[in-house]
From TrEMBL, chain A:
Protein name: Anaphase-promoting complex subunit 11
Species whose genome carries this gene: Salpingoeca rosetta (strain ATCC 50818 / BSB-021)
InterPro entries xref list: RING-box_E3_Ubiquitin_Ligase (IPR051031), RING-H2_APC11 (IPR024991), Znf_RING (IPR001841), Znf_RING/FYVE/PHD (IPR013083)
Statement: the UniProt record of this protein carries the keyword Metal-binding: yes
Residue span(s) of domain RING-type: 35-76
Source organism superkingdom: Eukaryota
GO cellular component: anaphase-promoting complex
PROSITE patterns tied to this protein: ZF_RING_2 (PS50089)
CDD domains xref list: RING-H2_APC11
Record keywords, A-Z: Cell cycle, Cell division, Metal-binding, Mitosis, Ubl conjugation pathway, Zinc, Zinc-finger
UniProtKB/TrEMBL annotation, chain B:
Domain UBC core, chain residue ranges per copy: 7-153
Organism (species): Salpingoeca rosetta (strain ATCC 50818 / BSB-021)
GO molecular function, one term: ubiquitin conjugating enzyme activity
UniProt record, GO biological process: DNA repair
Keyword check for Transmembrane: no
Family: Belongs to the ubiquitin-conjugating enzyme family.
Pfam entry (one): UQ_con
Composition bias, Acidic residues: 152-181
Start-end of Basic and acidic residues biased regions: 182-191
Protein name (Swiss-Prot/TrEMBL): E2 ubiquitin-conjugating enzyme
Active site, renumbered: C91 (glycyl thioester intermediate)
Keywords for this protein: ATP-binding, Nucleotide-binding, Transferase, Ubl conjugation pathway
Xref: InterPro entries: Ub_conjugating_enzyme, UBC, UBQ-conjugating_AS, UBQ-conjugating_enzyme/RWD
Region Disordered, residue ranges: 144-191
Amino acid sequence: MKVKVKRKWNVVAVWKWTAPDDSCGICRQAFDGCCPSCHEPGENCPIVFGKCKHCFHMHCILKWLGQPQDECPMCRQTWEFQ
Amino acid sequence: MSSSITPARKRLMKDFKRLQEDPPQGIMGAPVENDIMTWHAVIFGPEGTPFEDGAFKLTLTFTEDYPNKAPVVKFVSRVYHPNVYKDGSICLDILQNKWSPTYNITGILTSIQSLLDEPNPNSPANAEAAQLYRENRREYERKVRDCVEESWSSDEEEEEDEDEDGQDGDDDDDGADGDAPDADKPDAAEQ
Ligand SMILES: [Zn+2]
Ligand SMILES: [Zn+2]
Ligand SMILES: [Zn+2]
């Protein structure tokens, strides 16, 4: 299998996504919107904090926890909901 | 249409944007055409290391579980390194048990780049490389230089083949060069 260095450049395109600072570390979507599993911004897509003070979309952290990890994705402390 | 884009794909678009806006030194990557789940990347060997001037190609294969599961990352170029298997698989903790869903493609590629000059002797994937790294650094570096040279020469062959075939007839090839912001190195090596 070979990767063609030159060809690679053909696929470079400009994606119009904004990248605000206050975004979820897992999905990287802004907290003022919803997680990528939800379609309606704000609705039923709460933001949750751990005891370690890190916060994520609830839907995002729930997908990560228990498979079988139980660590905060940021600091690796055992995740406990605040 | 946007509602049919899965969380993994949305995340990969974020990663793509991030990599384009803030590309780390010596790292390039992009999804292959029409498939954002498969990426091709190039890591240039860090300056001041035996890997300097190497252009090592990789593939990254993502699943719909990304970012909750790490992608499968493999070198396509031959890389002589204590933590790289013969088939190009990489023994790197963040791709295995230390994966975190907060990592993105920039982080993955940067970690692999730093692994090049900072092998982890505790998890040898290439026993000979690990032994030479410990006991005969000069010979180790000679073997690394071999794969650095190989990383370019395989490109040249490929380009020659394409030119001779002439079947390509694809104007995009030339256009792409001009558009690539960081294409200096690959172009230089092809001449
Ligand atoms: Zn999220
Ligand atoms: Zn949600
Ligand atoms: Zn934390």
